[in-house]
Amino acid sequence: MEILLSLAIGVLTASGLWLLFRPRTFQVILGLSLLSYAVNLFIVAAGRLRSDAPPIIGKDPTSADPALYADPLPQALVLTAIVISFATTALLLVVLLASRGLTGTDHVDGEDGEA
Amino acid sequence: MTGWLHHLIITPILLPLLASALMLAFDERRRVLKRWLSLIASALLIANAAALLWFTSDAGNAGTDSPHVYLLGNWAAPFGIVLVVDRLSATMLLLANVLGFTSLFYALARWDRSGPRFHALFLLLLMGVNGAFLTGDIFNLFVFFEVLLAASYGLILHGAGTERTSASLHYITINIAASLLFLIGVALIYSVTGTLNMADIATRVARTDPGDIALLEAGAAILGVAFLIKAGVWPLSFWLPRTYAAAAPPVAALFAIMTKVGVYVILRLSFLLFGEASGDVAGFANDGLLYGGLATMTFGVIGILSARQLTRVVGHYVLVSSGTLLAGLGIGGQSLIAALLFYLVSSTLAISALYLIIEPVERNADEDDMIEGIAEPVFDDEYVGAIEEEEDETGVVIPGTIAILGGGFIFCALLLAGLPPLSGFIAKFAIIDALLRAGAVGPMNWTLIGLLIVSGLATMIVMTRAGIDLLWTPGEDAPSRLSLVEVAPIALLLAVCLALMLWAGPVMAYLEATSAALHDPAGYLSAVAGAPPAGSAQP
Questions:
Q1: Residue B201: its chain A contacts at CB < 8 A?
Q2: Which end of chain A has a smaller Cβ tally under 10 Å, C or N?
Q3: How many domains does chain A have?
Q4: ipTM of the complex in this document
C-alpha cells in the first residue's frame, strides 16, 4: 500500500508541477488542484498508514489502547486543508475569468507572447 | 494578567472577526456606519496591543518574566491549541495594528469607495496577521496564514482594473503554491515529532532519532521556503514589487507588515526549534538565511536604482529591508537581534508612510512630470530646460500642499536611507555596532555592513531624484487639495518614528530583553507546558 500511495503522490505532483508551469491560466489552476491532492495524500501518509483501524476511540475505556487506532490528527488536518484549497481555487477561478475578460487572452501574463 | 484581563490575549483575533462579520450584515450604502465600526475596532486593537505590550514588559509583569499563555477551549498545552503572547508577539502586534489603523484612516479619503466590502476584508486581514503573531501551534499558524492571504487576495483586487487583476493572478498562484509547501513542511515535522504545538516540537527536536534528523531538516527547510516566499527573499521575490505597486495605496501600506509576518515566523521557529539547546540540528539554516538575505539586499539595491516608478522603488526597498533582517538573523547574536528588531519596526513604519505619501505627491506633480519624469531614462537630462527658464522667473512660492508633502517626503527619505537624526539612523547604527562588536569580525559581517551602507546611499540617490522631479519642478497646474484625512495618518506614522527616536533608550532596552528571551526559550517552553487550565486552582 505504501508503494501505491507514494506512486500516486509522485504522479500527482509531477503532473501538477508540469501544469503549473504552463502558460495558460486554466492549466495553472488544474496544476494547483492536482498539487493540493498530492499534498493532502501526503499529510495522511505523515500520520502512518493504517487500514482497518478507526480514528475515534469508542466509549469502552478498556479498549482505549492507542496502538489499535489510526492517528486522527492528520485526518483533521486534511479536512481543513481541503476546505481551504477549495475556497482559494474558487477565488482563483473568478480572477481567471476577470483576467480573461479584461485582457482578452487566457495567457498568465495577460498578453500572448507566442502568437 | 489575571481574571478578565487574561482574555485580552484572544481579543486581537475576535474583535476584527466579529466587527467584519457584523459589517457583512449591513448594506454597502451604510458607509458611514461601516467606517465608524472599522475605525473603532481598529483603534481598540491598538489599545489592546499596547496593553499586551505593557503586560509583557518589566513594569507590567511584576518581575516574573514569562510569556502569557491562553488555552483555547481550556485544553492543556500539547493537546489543545495555545495562544502565546511574549515580548516579540506583543511588539509585532502593536506594529501591525498601528499600520492597520493608519492605513484604514487614509482609506477613508476615497479608497474605501472604489469597491465593495473594503472594511470587512481589511479587518479580516488584521485578524489573520494578529492570529499569526499570537498562535503557538504550527497548523493553527497555517490557518491564520490562509485567513490573511484570502483577505489579501480580496484587497489586492480592490478597485479592479487590468493591472491589478493580472498582478493578483500571479500573487494568488504563488501564494497557493507557497501554502502547499507550508503543508508539506508541517506534515514532515509532524511525522517526525508527532506534535504540532511549537513548544512541544521544540522539546522533542533535541531528542530526535538520528535517523530522522534529515527528515526533520527537510520539513523545516520546506516550511522555511514558504515563509521566505512571503518575506520576499531572492530568488522568490519577483512577484513582490509588481503586486505591491498594483495595490491601492492604503492596501500596499498595510501589506508592508505582511513580509514581516514571514520574517517573524522564521525568527520565532528558528530560535525555538533550532536554537542553541536543540543539539545536532542547532542553527542548521543560518548560512542559508545569511546568503539568501545578502542576495536579496543586492537585488533590492539594483531594483531601487533601476525602478521607473516610485511605488516600485518602495517595493524594492521592502526587499532590502527583508534581506537585511534575514542576513542579520543568519549571523545571529543577542545584541544584533535586538538591533534588527528595532530596524524592523522603524523600516516597516517608514515603508508604510511612504506608500501613503506617494499617491498625493504624484497627484500633485505636473501631468508632464508624471509621464516623463518617472518613465524616462535616468541619464536623460530633463533639468536643462527648467534651469534656463529660471532667469525670467522671480522666485516661485511653494504652495502649502507641496510644502507639507515635501516635508513628509524628506522625512520618509531620511528614515529609509538611515540618515541622522531619525530612527532609521539609530536602527542602522545599532546593527553596524552589533556587527562590529562580535569578537572576530568575519568577512560576512563586513559584507553586510557594506551592503547596508550602499542600500542607504542608493535610497538617498533615488529619493532625491524623485523628490526634485515631483516636488520642485514648477508645475503649471494649481496644486490639488490635500485632505486632512490623508495627511493625518502619514503624520501619525512619522510621529511614531519620531517617538522611536526620542525614546530609543527604553525601546532598545525592551527589545534587548526580547532578544534575550528569544535566545533562551526555556521560559517560553515552561510557560506553555505549565499553563494551568482556567477554573483549576491557581497559585
A1: none
A2: C
A3: 1
A4: 0.90
